[in-house]
């Protein structure tokens, strides 16, 4: 403690003219010895007089009777101060004196196994407000406690012999190493006021004899190092601190996020994979080092530019490319002869070719290539005539869409097309698979297309398959699982065999429809249609259109009118165009309208759709409105309808909201396009 008291008393020969200092080390409050006080005082002649006195003498002087603000000490020293100041010192002195007396009377206790700090016995043997001490072991001194209402309050300690010996040893080592201290350090001093180059008060630092400071700190918390300033920014929007130039412009500093800013670049640790990544102010990455793991398409510093993505099996156009309509009677455009179906696509506009017999020819090994058109003929199997297969209309649509995209007329496009319809009417899928006569005829169409193209000096590959089949499997009640298994095997076999014949590396496009004739066969559940969607969801096929958008002859509600077959061909040609473009770009996309997600929340069920041409709408101009717009809630096992739908509406450009009278159970599913009951 250093106390400074100043008071002028004119009548006293040694009145204080400047100030008196009382130096007390250590504090009497925490000391157990009678401390020495150093008192310095200027006399009337301006001489500084110094005197050492005991703390007890000062206490005695302060608590003794005094007159006003004068306290007599020893050898002519007198203490002058305002009465209020002396009263405060007196109160403190009396408190210290009482504590010293209490400490002097303190009983001594010792640490035991049952009393690890000695305070249990000390509290038991010491009245409230009195002190006791606890020996810390041989040569380790004492700790002094006060019994503060039953709690041992430690307020002082006394060093033991071992502590003194350790201090002496440390001091000896320090002295022995003192020769390593830089001889240029002459000492330390206190200056009244020193300012840096900006006029800010310096709190401390190192100074040479000529006053130059290589390092110092200011009252603002700034640090100056030989012409360089480290500024402490309290309210800066970017920096907590920064090294600045003479104009206070930061060029390196600490950021608010705990990183480092150098110029306009901030280096900071952010959550994420290990490595270095460069981001903009919005933390959007734009470059990274080779060690940074990311699936983002951003440049990698120090690496070679990435090569363009090339499909593992690239699609390449050939001179002629085959398009086949495979399946049963609908793939032939067939209908009841009593309905007298007539072809629609009777003119070839774009140089596409077909077999000279007909599109369902069973004699392709002797056929020649002729312009591809539709005509009425009697297939080699079946009794119903064929009229409008999808191949002519589909290839026309394909050429037209390529021309719209590229501006190239058909005779300048990359390919012309050979179309045919090798299907067989009235057959379930098991009668069309590899090893059957129907399958062999389909393969013959491919083999002879290759032969006839070579005869013209042109190359050939298979481009697309149009699958129209499943009606006879409703008749035969083929299960969903069985149909899917046979269908996937047919796809795998036919694509592999076609590639083996032509030598092409890419798979031909496989496209189907989703038939809607289960009601004609008095079947409640459209299991074949669901199996066709299962294959599409597995990525093996793509669905071009649903069958329920067509018009069917009333004679059987199964075979379409020629105008419906032609409409189907336009959907098919558009899908071939889209999938061909995907193969050219090396990507895989979904192009059908289909449900891709379902979210349930209370009484609401949200169905999210892949919408090829947003927004999603209910088209009631072409298709008549159905109950609940065709949606039903069914039991997932029995597939029975559960009547709880209260409303169905479009909730956004890609979703339908179904509201029910209660939340759906886990055992309930949403269906679309099924009939409530069988036609009677």
Overview of this structure, please?
The chain has 10 helices and 33 strands. By secondary structure, it is an alpha+beta fold. It folds into 4 domains: 99-161, Ribosomal Protein L25, Chain P (Beta Barrel), CATH 2.40.240; 189-288, no CATH class; 320-585, SGNH hydrolase (Rossmann fold), CATH 3.40.50; 594-672, Immunoglobulin-like, CATH 2.60.40. The strands form 9 sheets. The protein has an 8-stranded antiparallel beta sheet with strand order 11-12-13-14-15-16-17-18, with no helix packed on it. A 5-stranded parallel beta sheet has the order 24-21-25-26-27, sandwiched between helices. A 4-stranded antiparallel beta sheet has the order 1-2-3-4. Helix 6 packs parallel to helix 8.
Determine the fraction of residues in helical runs and give it as a percent range: 10-25%
Overall number of strands: 33
Return the CATH class of the largest domain.
Alpha Beta
Strand content: 25-35%
Overall pLDDT, averaged?
Answer: 81
| Biggest sheet descriptor | 8 strands, antiparallel
Architecture per CATH nomenclature, i.e. the level-2 architecture of the largest domain: 3-Layer(aba) Sandwich
CATH superfamily of the largest domain: SGNH hydrolase
Strand order of the largest sheet: 11-12-13-14-15-16-17-18
GO molecular function: hydrolase activity, acting on ester bonds
InterPro entries: SGNH_hydro_sf
Organism: Serratia rubidaea (Serratia marinorubra)
Protein name: Sialate O-acetylesterase domain-containing protein
């Amino acid at each position: 403690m250093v106390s400074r008291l100043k008071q002028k008393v004119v009548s006293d020969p040694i009145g204080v003219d400047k100030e008196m200092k009382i130096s007390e080390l250590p504090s009497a409050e925490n000391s157990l010895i009678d401390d020495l006080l150093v008192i310095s005082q200027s006399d009337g002649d301006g001489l500084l007089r110094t005197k050492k006195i005991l703390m007890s003498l000062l206490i005695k002087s302060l608590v003794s009777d005094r007159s006003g603000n004068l306290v007599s000490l020893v050898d002519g020293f007198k203490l002058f101060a305002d009465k209020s100041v002396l009263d405060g010192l007196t109160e403190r002195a009396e408190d210290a004196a009482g504590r010293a007396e209490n400490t002097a009377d303190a009983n001594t206790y010792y640490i035991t196994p049952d009393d690890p700090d000695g305070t249990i016995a000390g509290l038991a043997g010491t009245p409230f407000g009195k002190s006791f001490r606890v020996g810390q072991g041989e040569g380790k001194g004492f700790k002094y406690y006060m019994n503060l209402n039953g709690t041992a309050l430690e307020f002082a300690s006394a060093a033991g012999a071992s502590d003194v010996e350790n201090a002496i040893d440390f001091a000896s080592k320090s002295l022995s190493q003192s020769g390593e201290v830089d001889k240029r350090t002459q000492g330390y001093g206190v200056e009244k006021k020193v300012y840096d180059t900006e006029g800010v008060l310096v709190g401390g630092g190192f100074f040479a004899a000529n006053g130059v400071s290589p390092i110092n700190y200011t009252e603002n918390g700034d640090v100056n190092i030989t012409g360089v300033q480290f500024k402490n920014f309290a309210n800066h929007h970017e920096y907590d601190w920064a090294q600045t130039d003479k104009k206070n412009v930061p060029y390196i500093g600490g950021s608010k996020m705990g990183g480092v800013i150098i110029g306009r670049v901030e280096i900071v640790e952010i959550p994420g994979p290990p490595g270095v990544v460069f981001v903009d102010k919005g933390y959007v990455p734009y470059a990274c080092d080779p060690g940074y793991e990311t699936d983002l398409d951003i440049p990698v510093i120090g690496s070679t530019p990435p090569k363009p993505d090339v499909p593992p099996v690239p699609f390449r156009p050939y001179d002629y490319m085959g398009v086949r309509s495979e399946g049963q009677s609908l793939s032939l455009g067939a209908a009841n002869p009593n309905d007298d179906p007539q072809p629609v696509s009777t003119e070839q506009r774009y140089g596409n070719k077909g077999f000279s017999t007909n599109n369902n020819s069973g004699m392709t090994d002797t056929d020649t290539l002729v312009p591809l058109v539709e005509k009425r003929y009697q297939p080699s199997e079946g009794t119903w005539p064929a009229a409008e297969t999808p191949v002519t209309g589909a290839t026309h649509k394909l050429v037209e869409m390529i021309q719209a995209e590229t501006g190239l007329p058909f005779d300048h496009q990359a390919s012309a097309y050979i179309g045919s319809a090798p299907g067989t009417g009235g057959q379930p899928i098991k009668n069309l698979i590899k090893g059957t006569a129907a399958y062999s005829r389909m393969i013959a169409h491919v083999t002879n297309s290759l032969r006839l193209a070579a005869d013209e000096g042109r190359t050939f590959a298979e481009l697309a398959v149009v699958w129209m089949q499943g009606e006879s499997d409703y008749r035969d009640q083929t299960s969903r699982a069985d149909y899917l298994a046979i269908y996937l095997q047919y796809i795998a076999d036919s694509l592999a065999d076609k590639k083996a014949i032509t030598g092409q590396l890419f798979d031909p496009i496989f496209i189907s429809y989703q038939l809607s004739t289960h009601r004609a066969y008095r079947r409640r559940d459209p299991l074949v249609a669901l199996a066709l969607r299962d294959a599409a969801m597995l990525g093996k096929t793509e669905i071009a259109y649903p069958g329920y958008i067509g018009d069917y002859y009333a004679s059987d509600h199964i075979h379409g009118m020629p105008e419906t077959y032609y409409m189907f061909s336009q959907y098919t040609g558009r899908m071939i165009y889209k999938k061909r473009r995907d193969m050219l770009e090396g990507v895989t996309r979904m192009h059908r309208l289909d449900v891709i997600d379902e979210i349930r929340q209370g009484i609401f069920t949200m169905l999210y759709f892949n919408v090829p041409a947003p927004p999603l709408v209910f088209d009631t101009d072409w298709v008549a409105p159905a109950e609940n717009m065709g949606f039903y809630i069914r039991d997932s096992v029995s597939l029975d309808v559960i009547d709880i739908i209260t409303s169905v509406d479009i909730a956004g450009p890609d979703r339908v909201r179904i509201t029910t009278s209660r939340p759906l159970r886990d055992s309930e599913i949403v269906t679309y396009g099924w009939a409530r009951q069988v036609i009677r």
